[in-house]
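Treating backbone geometry as a discrete language has practical consequences that deserve illustration. Part of our work consisted of pairing the sequence of a single chain with a tokenised description of its backbone. What the numbers capture is local backbone geometry rather than side-chain detail. For completeness, the protein is quoted in full, as a sequence line and a line of structure tokens:
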Amino acid sequence: MTLPQPKTAPPIRPEYLKELTPLQQQTVEQPLPLYTRLWNTAWIRKSGLLIILLLLWQAAALWQQNDLLLPSVTQTWRAFIDDMLSGELPTKIAISLGTLLKGYVSGSLLALALSALAVSNRLCRDLLGMLTSMLNPLPAIALLPLALLWFGLGEKSLVFVLTHSVLWPMALTTWSGFMSVSETLRMAGRNYGLRGFRYVWHILIPAALPSILSGLKIGWAFAWRTLIAAELVFGASSGKGGLGWYIYQNRNELFTDRVFAGLASVIIIGLLVESLIFSTLERLTVKRWGMQR
């Protein structure tokens, strides 16, 4: 039998002093070069691309040497400034935008209403799916004969066609956004007792806002294109109209530079709406909330 060994104290680690290497002096980072800072600015890059496109246009016009087929950038700019100063082009733009807003707002509100009803009712869900499958592939311009029969010549027919062009793509994107909302958020809304409109307003719409904004942009593009095409017909029939009639009339009179001025007005308005309205909405909402990069 062996006797238990007495417990010994653990060895004490000797203390020592370690010399630390001195920190290297931090060098101040040099600012980025000017061309790098300019290249990192989005609006400068886009402006450079626009200038390149304008230069290509000017070169093609000089090579063509036929103002009737392809006017130069300077001729188009001169026609644009002359018609803006005379008041003809602003009047046409105001007419087109007034009609466009009526059809766009009505189509967007109807799309939100149908999507909200489809969330809470199975029958409305089936109805929305069937209507979008039937009517979304139907071109809005194909409804012009019916619009003429039902509403006659005038603004009501244009608003009807614009509502159709906005309603179905907007309803599709809104419904897809509602369906992509996570079940966690849905359960949180139900636990708070949210039902019906309050459930849609406080839970579904904020969560599906990126899809809703995409639908608004798609609907705007569809409505803008449909309006110009419809005004070519309605303007030629009734003798009045907005930018579409302006383009049609100048095409008949072979003022190609003014035709390009009208097309440039359509493009400029589209760029302003995209950069000033939709981009601002995205920056203040979905990008600020971290829902979109």
Notes: The chain has twelve helices and no strands. The radius of gyration is 31 Å. Residues 33 and 276 are 29 Å apart (CA to CA).
